[in-house]
Specification:
Distance between the termini of chain A: 52 Å
Helix content of chain B: 25-40%
Shape of chain A: flat
Structural class of chain B: alpha/beta
Order of helices and strands of chain B: EEEHEEHEHHHHEHEHEEHH
Distance between the termini of chain B: 40 Å
Strand content of chain B: 15-25%
Shape of chain B: globular
Number of strands of chain A: 0
Number of helices of chain A: 11
Oligomer: heterotrimer
Helix content of chain A: over 70%
Strand order of the largest sheet of chain B: 5-4-1-2-10-9-3-8-7-6
Number of strands of chain B: 10
Number of helices of chain B: 10
Chains: A mainly alpha (292), B alpha/beta (292), C mainly alpha (329)
Radius of gyration of chain B: 19 Å
């Protein structure tokens, strides 16, 4: 410890010793990190730009509202119905799981349930496709419902996790207040806790729908043989839907089909972008409101 | 020796009201026989966070090789001032500083000052012990390694730990995690970590506030032993501590000059005088316990 | 606070005089709500078991016919009734490993950029954008890969790599289409990046500010703070995030099937076509020839399921051992 490190503390505050080299390394690392972020954003921009510029050529009123070959209306309707059915299944179960996590489960229960949700979330969607095929399609027939079950399994952990986060933000004092008032648990959950968190629950559901709406793998097995000309709202038969139709057109290699596929991609991407951006903004707002 | 613009022999200044009025005429007859060398020379320093002013017009000199204590009620800006001495506030959003702080005559906030070099010379120990989640040895060895001081590293680590009065307690478990140490040991480890690179100045931000009385005593003993080797500035809300360890004491307070209270330097001088014969009534109220 | 306890005391009296009917209703209501919540939780757990059962059940003919040899046999000839997933497993491993090796450093760098470098405004824009990359449906990414990326890769990237690094067998002669293991890996990289980036950003944000202050107060440069403090305190979580990303890459079927070219052989060159477990299921299941063919595809799904469950368990196990506050998700 005898050697003086700074020969003169009165020296100007310029880099001494090896600092110049270390600063250089640091700058290089900063540059690399910035470059990585720029790369990711650039790629995203290229993808979005391609989809938008090529898709816009296909889109007009007929494209959205008529059937094949002038439009993709049936596919759009089918995707809406399938997503709706899926959400009708996933949302109640997801919210109940969230309630289970926040209101009832002990530490062990929470850990186990979170693991279950993680595992569900990690299931490859193609495996879910085979699952609903084996359960609902094999020896029967394809159906939008079978696809909806698979999408519901995809949505479930997302809704449960999102709702749980919002429910955790509901102030404990609200619960204690109604406990102290002698109000039964179920009443306070239904009349105080859930309504307070409702905004957040809805937005996390929207996020989950946005994630599931473009899922293709399960639908290839559950709802892929359909007539692109016919509008249908019956989920118990095979339903036309956007993702599978994009997939088919992309496999066919026909330029007109490509244009159509770009058009559908644009519709799908815009829905997803607006839904997730809007939901995210709302979620941030309602979280702020709850935590303030 | 001193930069030519440093003229005031004794840095004792009294401020009255919100505006700083340098009153260098304290004890005029006791004309100084020596000129203390100034490490820091802060002139009219005001600090803002966004629109909020935290500190106004602080003019204060820090003598080389001495211990200077900054005392005052909470929120009076003493920690803000301390953190501005090694530019730790730079990363706080909205931080702005007016006036000038000279470090050995060099403008600390000057254009081509290297922040890393500043912190390398001016070390800091924080209120809450913050050892890295590494081994005890690596906590101390980390900064010297960065500086390229690989030769004699073991001796350097031992020296720093001895300097921080921690060696005997940890010499047999240098490879153990630092997080297993007690709070007081962790804080002394943080001091060891700081002196391992032999800084010019040590800034201590309420280093004992999170510790029990015995650990506090150990830290105070340690400060006495470090005195002379380093210039030390310590923020404390504990007046007895200031009285026990400091050569000079500066008293800060919250003053309501404008509409909002702003941290202000009230009085600075030899510690004994500040406690025995404060010139400003606000200082007297504080040190006699009538306030804060 | 005092008002609450005050009124509680007051209402407590009333609660004591609550009608028996209401009391019974509350008892039933409490039990009912708990029961329904528990049921929902059990449904979720049962779903995993049921998925496992159905897939294994579907695979059972192939399991009894080929046994464990299916995993490493490389012949896949539906017309002759011989099936082995060896080359698919190889393709899955190569594409996922490639995606992780390329994607993880980029993603971690993005996480660091978002936490430590980006000004607040940039952070608020780039963060959501990176997450949007994760929201683009795989079929669209695959379609883009097919029509935009693959021709570009074939015309520019593959020849460049072949010419400069061609002495490595992995950079062989480019094919004519650009539909290759290489292109598939790039698409998977795009899918892996947002997952790892957003988790690592959250992890880096959870590193206590006082630790970083402590490091920079010792005269450390920004990079030294990252290397010495930020990365070591979050390393477990970052590894878990990478495993999650890996799981995503392993299981992706659609986008891969669109750009990998559906080849069957194990080839050293990344520029040849290949196939993965998931992609093979998506490509062949709808038109499967025989029950054995179907069962073999189910068998592929079993392998996939085992790997993805293992990956997720590993990620959550490592994530839980995360030392310094915070956690994955």
């Amino acid at each position: 410890m005898s050697d003086q490190l700074i020969p003169d503390p009165r020296a100007p505050l310029r880099p001494s010793g090896n600092l110049r080299r270390r600063q250089l390394v640091s700058r290089a690392a900063e540059l690399a990190a910035t470059a990585a972020a720029v790369t990711a954003v650039t790629v995203l921009a290229i993808v979005i730009w391609t989809v938008a510029s090529r898709g816009i050529k296909a889109i007009d009123l007929d494209f959205v509202f008529t059937g094949y070959p002038t439009g993709i209306g049936p596919m759009l309707l089918g995707t809406i119905v399938i997503s709706l059915v899926a959400t009708l299944m996933a949302m109640p179960i997801g919210v109940l799981i969230a309630l289970f996590l926040t209101e009832y489960a002990g530490a062990k229960g929470v850990r186990g349930m979170k693991l279950v949700l993680d595992l569900l979330n990690g299931l490859p969607s193609i495996v879910l496709g085979l699952f609903v095929f084996a359960l609902l399609v094999d020896h029967k027939q394809q159906s939008g419902f079978a696809g909806a079950v698979a999408l519901a399994i995809i949505e479930l952990p997302l809704i449960a996790r999102g709702s749980q986060e919002v429910l955790l933000l509901v102030p404990q004092s609200l619960r204690e207040a109604s406990d102290a008032l002698g109000v039964a648990r179920w009443r306070s959950v239904l009349t105080v806790v859930l309504p307070t968190a409702l905004g957040g629950i809805v937005t996390s559901t929207v996020l989950a729908v946005a994630r599931a709406a473009g899922e293709t793998a399960p639908l290839i097995l559950a709802s892929s043989v359909f007539d692109p000309k016919t509008f249908t709202v019956n989920p118990f038969e095979s339903m036309p839907n956007v993702p599978v139709w994009i997939y088919k057109l992309s496999e066919e290699g026909n330029p007109e089909g490509f244009t159509e596929a770009w058009g559908m991609s644009l519709l799908l991407v815009s829905f997803i972008l607006f839904a997730s951006l809007g939901a995210r903004a709302l979620l941030a707002r309602s979280k702020r409101k709850l935590s303030s | 020796m001193n930069p030519p613009d440093q003229t005031v022999p004794s840095r004792v200044r009294i401020q009255t009201g919100a505006a700083a009025v340098p009153a260098a005429v304290t004890g005029t007859t006791a004309a100084p026989a020596f000129r203390p060398e100034l490490v820091f020379d802060s002139r009219d320093v005001s600090i803002f966070y966004g629109a909020k002013q935290a500190l106004t017009a602080v003019t204060l000199g820090i003598h080389r090789g001495e211990i200077t204590a900054l005392i005052g009620p909470s929120g009076c800006g003493k920690t803000t001032f301390l953190r501005s001495l090694n530019r730790m506030n730079d990363s706080v959003s909205g931080f702005r500083i007016e006036g000038s702080i000279l470090y050995h005559g060099h403008e600390l906030y000057g254009g081509n000052v290297d922040q890393v070099e500043v912190r390398r010379r001016i070390g800091m120990v924080f209120q809450k012990p913050n050892p890295f989640p590494k081994s005890i040895y690596d906590n101390v060895a980390w900064a010297p390694r960065n500086l390229g001081l690989r030769r004699g590293l073991d001796e350097r680590v031992e020296g720093a730990l001895r300097g921080a009065a921690l060696w005997d307690e940890v010499k047999d478990r240098l490879k153990d995690s630092a997080l297993g140490l007690s709070g007081g040991q962790q804080q002394r480890l943080c001091i060891a970590r700081a002196i391992a690179i032999e800084p010019d100045v040590l800034l201590l931000d309420e280093p004992a506030s999170a510790l029990d009385p015995i650990a506090t005593g150990a830290i105070e003993d340690l400060m006495h032993s470090l005195k002379g080797r380093f210039t030390i500035v310590i923020v404390t809300h504990n007046m007895q501590q200031a009285a026990r360890v400091a050569d000079r004491t500066a008293f800060f307070s919250l003053e309501t000059g404008g509409e909002k209270p702003v941290g202000t330097l009230i009085e600075v001088g030899e510690t004994e005088r500040i406690f025995a014969d404060p010139r400003d009534p606000r200082t007297r109220d504080y040190v006699t316990g009538r306030f804060g | 606070m005092s008002t609450v306890s005050h009124s509680a005391a007051r209402v407590g009296g009333r609660a004591g005089r609550m009608s028996p009917l209401r009391k019974r209703l509350d008892l039933v209501g409490d039990r009912l709500l708990f029961g329904v919540c528990l049921l929902a939780a059990l449904i979720a757990a049962a779903t995993i078991v049921l998925v496992g059962y159905q897939v294994v059940h579907g695979a059972s003919p192939a399991i009894s016919k080929f046994g464990f040899g299916f995993v490493y046999e490389t012949t896949w000839q539906p017309n002759f009734g011989t099936f082995g997933a060896g080359s698919l497993l190889f393709g899955t491993a190569v594409t996922s490993a490639f995606a992780l090796v390329l994607g993880a450093p980029i993603a971690i760098a993005i996480g660091l950029f978002l936490t430590l470098l980006a000004p607040r405004g940039v952070r608020g824009v780039v963060g959501p954008l990176v997450e949007l990359l994760a929201a683009i449906p795989s079929v669209i990414l695959g379609f883009w890969g097919l029509l935009v990326l693959a021709p570009f890769v074939q015309a520019h990237v593959e020849p460049f790599l072949h010419n400069t690094l061609g002495f490595l067998p992995i950079f062989g002669t480019p094919e004519t289409t650009g539909l290759s293991v290489f292109t598939a890996s790039l698409i998977l990289t795009l899918m892996v990046i947002p997952i790892i980036a957003s988790i690592s950003r959250d992890l880096f944000q959870s590193v206590p500010a006082e630790l970083q202050d402590g490091a920079s107060a010792l005269g450390a440069t920004r990079w030294e703070v990252v290397r010495g403090v930020v990365l070591p305190t979050t390393s477990n979580g970052v590894v878990a995030a990478c495993i999650l990303g890996l799981g995503r890459a392993l299981g992706e079927a659609i986008a891969v099937s669109q750009v990998i070219g559906a080849g069957s052989a194990i080839q050293a060159s990344l520029f040849k076509s290949g196939d993965t477990l998931a992609s093979r299921i998506a490509l062949q299941f709808p038109g499967a020839l025989t029950e054995l063919h179907k069962a073999s595809l189910y068998y592929c799904a079993v392998i996939l399921l085992v790997i993805s469950l293992a990956a997720n368990l590993a990620a959550s196990w490592i994530g839980r051992r995360f030392s310094y506050g915070g956690a994955v998700n």
